[in-house]
Write a sequence for this structure.
């Protein structure tokens, strides 16, 4: 799905993907080409509305002549390139990356990861019971959203969404370094003391559920969160003239969270605090 | 950008430290008291954000004066530079030399890395800590290699204040290190740089010929010993001529990656995008490496001249010298050399009266090995976290500030001087066909005369160790530093060339040669290497961030085990190591398993 409205047609370049010649528009990534060819390459830190940080390395593929594997999500396809997506070498790295991640953070709310762990025969337990884990307590310091960094894979998506790629608020950043690196606001303060404007665009892009609506967090804790019982209705935000699209997630006649379609050419899935969180007035109150 | 600054205010001293660097604030937009005019106009935007690169110097200014960086101080600096506080916090917490928690004004860094560990760093630390109990006003911190391996064990004291004071104790004793920390001004003077060069003064030296011979503080002395003849020659040859000489000389980079220097210069020079930059990588944080320090302390003008030539050849008018934060003496010498050169028209608008403008600035690192990676170094200078960028694009195309940049190691640059003075053919005749010129080796560990040795490429490992006085009962030699590999005592005939070491399945890296006799417990050494990489990973990519942790854990489990008992963990190490090498973003993660793997395969570490 492209986030840029289609403009002038781009020239096509040719390269080989798993031995088959393919054509892709100039500027596309290897991942774009893989998806166009119907190949399923796992991704975590890649986001459809963001420039990829290529930090997770779960999408690595083999490029003929390259010393190391390359991230499909961010390497541009070049004419004549020979790419192999499913070699033993690439599969090995993906498997290890999944094991490293799953052994250090809680991936229970990360879509598709269980499927990949099975496919790559990853065994996160093999680092033993004492393998270092993040072991973070959820940060619940406001009524709108919860930061549960025990689930954070440090994909940098929230940083980019809050920073120069979308929101330009720069409330969050990565602090510390190495295994101690954490997403944090200035001085590691509570969210309420930070520059955060509660647009929730970071929640929109977080791939693991480390950032979630307080409503979702509470319902999960109470065991009442049930996606299969939810309906999604996309409508137009009524607060101001921008007219952003809202997708209301409704369970038992209650709005439980609000997202926004990523393919909207104006908002790309971004909202402001009112559209994202200002829905209580339409709820039933007892 | 809609920046939000908290309510915490800087103390007068913190404000003074920042203002000393940036000048007093001009409006309330930058942190001055509010005036009527401020209500009617807005300052900021692109103009203000352009100064982002002063963030790292600003953090240094505060840390130097106070010893740590408070919320108020950080917010004030952010206001002055229009930097979001969250980002500045991310930068401040990236570097080991900064603290965002209160701590004593004096920090004593005690090296516990390979050479120092072998020389008894553990006992030294314990001794220092028992002498300096709580409330001593000194914070003792275990440090990775301080680049003083020839004088192991080493300690560096930094006492915050105006000005900041530093003292080095090496070889350190408990008494000397405690004195350095408590009274840096009255600690013993460091021995001259030439003491690190056992060959100092010998005829036939090229790169080290002036170390110990010239007065590093005197430009006239430098000129009397041939200084600035290479730059004159460069002006005769013109930029293209210089690049041709460097290409023909066969010079390849001495920073570890061994990339042909001429090709890099040519690629930068030919970029249409302007401006171009030259960056000297003087970060030198590879454990066991101290050659760049010795050059900078002993012959600082040589580096200034060489950077000027690199800039002239590649069309740059501005250069940055990124110096590791733990090198206070090199900093003083280089600052002095640059000021001298500037005052004598050897830097500035009209270098040597040739109508060519070039100036250069020193940027201090703040304790992060990863900032030696070329693109991490750009981020660090620009005021971002020192995380490597993904390549392509390469620095020759998009480097510092997104502009074409040539980045070279100190030793690489200094090689350009003899290339120009003796001519490419004569230079290329030194060494072997594919590894040309002289090479510096940093020898430390179990040898009689540790130090920097200059030898033409092609000498064997045995030749070098003989020169340095290898001791009996040699157990292993680490080539190329922590990112390199171990070789056995029966492999001393390996030729010290890029191709020779490659054929022998190892690497020359940045020229580290660390010898260990059989009193050094190998598993402990490997654990230290693993700990180093875990500590120094930037944390950006998963294979490195988590892989280095899992590697260290596995090595902990097998410290005392061998054979079948270790086999499972060794298999695990191999699998993780392979993914780290294949899938990490940068050279740190890609090489973090090299030394351990070589110890298992070549030394039979756990058999
Ligand atoms: C983790 C890491 C650390 C590095 N540290 C240094 C360093 O301290 N000094 C250095 O010159 N090169 C270092 N390098 C190599 C540089 O990235 C780069 O290759 C070099 O500065 C280029 O200069 P040269 O061509 O003159 O060797 C490091 C590389 C990596 C991956
Ligand atoms: S909180 Fe979510 S979006 Fe942010 S880095 Fe962690 S996983 Fe990525
Ligand atoms: S989400 Fe915010 S910006 Fe968008 S229409 Fe609603 S109120 Fe306006
Ligand atoms: S390999 Fe390590 S140091 Fe390099 S980018 Fe990845 S995490 Fe950072
Ligand atoms: S999805 Fe490509 S590196 Fe994360
Ligand atoms: S100074 Fe201690 S190992 Fe280099």
């Amino acid at each position: 799905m492209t986030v840029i409205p289609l403009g002038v047609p781009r020239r096509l370049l040719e390269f080989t993907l798993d031995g088959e010649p393919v054509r892709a528009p100039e500027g596309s990534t290897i991942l774009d080409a893989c998806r166009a060819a119907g190949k399923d390459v796992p991704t975590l830190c890649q986001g459809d509305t963001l420039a990829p940080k290529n930090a997770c390395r779960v999408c690595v593929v083999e490029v003929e002549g390259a010393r190391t594997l390359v991230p499909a999500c961010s390497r541009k396809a070049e004419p004549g390139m020979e790419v192999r997506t499913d070699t033993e070498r690439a599969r090995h790295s993906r498997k290890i990356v999944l094991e490293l991640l799953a052994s250090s953070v809680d991936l229970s709310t990360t879509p598709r990861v269980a499927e990949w762990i099975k496919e790559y025969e990853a065994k996160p337990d093999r680092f033993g019971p004492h393998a270092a884990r993040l072991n973070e307590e959820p940060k619940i310091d406001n009524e709108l959203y919860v930061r549960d960094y025990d689930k954070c894979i440090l994909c940098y998506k929230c940083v980019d969404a809050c920073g120069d790629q979308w929101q330009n608020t720069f409330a969050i950043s990565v602090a510390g370094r190495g295994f101690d690196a954490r997403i944090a606001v200035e001085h590691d303060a509570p969210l309420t003391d930070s520059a955060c404007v509660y647009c929730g665009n970071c929640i929109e892009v977080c791939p693991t559920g480390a950032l979630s609506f307080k409503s979702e967090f509470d319902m999960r804790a109470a065991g009442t969160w049930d996606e299969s019982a939810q309906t999604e209705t996309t409508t137009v935000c009524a607060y101001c003239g921008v007219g952003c699209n809202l997708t209301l997630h409704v369970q038992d006649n209650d709005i439980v969270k609000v997202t926004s379609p990523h393919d909207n050419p104006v908002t790309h899935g971004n909202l402001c605090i009112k559209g994202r969180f200002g829905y209580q007035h339409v709820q039933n109150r007892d | 950008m809609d920046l939000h600054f908290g309510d915490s205010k800087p103390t007068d001293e913190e404000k003074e430290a920042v203002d000393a660097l940036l000048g007093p604030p001009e409006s309330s937009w930058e942190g001055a008291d509010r005036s009527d005019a401020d209500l009617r106009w807005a300052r900021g935007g692109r103009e203000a954000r352009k100064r982002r690169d002063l963030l790292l110097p600003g953090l240094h200014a505060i840390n130097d004066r106070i010893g740590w960086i408070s919320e108020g101080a950080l917010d004030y600096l952010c206001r002055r530079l229009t930097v979001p506080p969250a980002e500045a916090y991310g930068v401040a917490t990236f570097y080991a030399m900064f603290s965002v928690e209160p701590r004593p004004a004096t920090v004593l860094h005690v090296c516990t890395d390979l050479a120092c560990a072998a020389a008894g760093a553990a006992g030294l630390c314990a001794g220092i800590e028992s002498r300096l109990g709580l409330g001593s006003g000194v914070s003792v911190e275990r440090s990775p290699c301080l680049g003083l391996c020839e004088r192991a064990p080493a300690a560096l004291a930094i006492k915050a204040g105006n000005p900041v004071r530093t003292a080095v104790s090496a070889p350190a004793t408990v008494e000397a290190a405690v004195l350095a920390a408590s009274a840096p001004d009255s600690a013993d003077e460091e021995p001259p740089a030439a003491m690190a060069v056992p060959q100092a003064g010998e005829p036939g030296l090229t790169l080290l010929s002036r170390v110990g011979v010239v007065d590093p503080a005197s430009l006239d002395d430098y000129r009397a010993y041939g200084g600035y003849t290479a730059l004159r020659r460069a002006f005769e040859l013109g930029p293209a001529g210089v690049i041709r000489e460097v290409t023909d000389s066969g010079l390849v980079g001495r920073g570890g990656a061994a990339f042909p220097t001429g090709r890099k210069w040519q690629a930068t020079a030919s970029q249409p995008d302007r401006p171009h930059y030259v960056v000297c990588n003087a970060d030198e944080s590879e454990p066991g490496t101290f050659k760049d320090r010795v050059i900078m302390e002993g012959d600082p003008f040589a580096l200034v001249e060489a950077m000027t030539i690199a800039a002239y050849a590649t069309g740059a008018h501005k250069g940055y010298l990124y110096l590791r934060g733990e090198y206070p003496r090199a900093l003083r010498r280089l600052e002095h050399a640059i000021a001298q050169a500037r005052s004598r028209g050897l830097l500035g608008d009209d270098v040597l009266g040739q109508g060519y403008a070039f100036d250069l600035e020193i940027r201090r690192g703040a304790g992060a090995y990863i900032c030696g990676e070329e693109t991490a170094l750009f981020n660090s200078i620009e005021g971002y976290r020192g995380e490597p960028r993904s390549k392509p694009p390469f620095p020759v195309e998009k480097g510092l500030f997104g502009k074409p940049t040539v980045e070279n190691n100190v030793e690489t640059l200094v090689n350009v001087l003899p290339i120009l003075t003796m001519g490419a053919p004569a230079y290329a005749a030194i060494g072997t066909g594919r590894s040309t010129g002289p090479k510096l080796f940093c020898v430390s560990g179990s040898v009689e005369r540790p130090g920097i040795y200059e030898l033409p490429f092609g000498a064997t490992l045995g030749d070098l160790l003989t020169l340095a006085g290898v001791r009996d009962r040699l157990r292993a030699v680490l080539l190329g530093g922590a990112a390199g590999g171990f070789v056995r005592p029966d492999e001393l005939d390996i030729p010290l060339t890029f191709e020779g070491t490659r054929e022998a399945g190892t690497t020359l890296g940045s020229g580290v040669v660390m010898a260990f006799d059989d009193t050094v417990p190998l598993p402990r050494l490997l654990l230290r290497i693993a700990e180093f990489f875990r500590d120094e990973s930037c944390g950006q990519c998963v294979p490195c961030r988590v892989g280095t942790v899992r590697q260290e854990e596995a090595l902990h489990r097998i410290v005392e085990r061998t054979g079948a008992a270790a086999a499972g963990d060794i298999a695990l190490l191999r699998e993780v190591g392979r993914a780290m090498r294949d899938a990490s973003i940068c050279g740190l993660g890609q090489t973090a398993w090299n030394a351990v793997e070589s110890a298992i395969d070549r030394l039979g570490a756990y058999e």
In short: Residues A 43-46, 52, 54-59, 71, 73 surround FE2/S2 (inorganic) cluster (ligand 5) (CB under 6 Å). The mean pLDDT of chain A is 95. The longest helix of chain A spans residues 88-104. Chain A is about 20% helix and 20% strand.
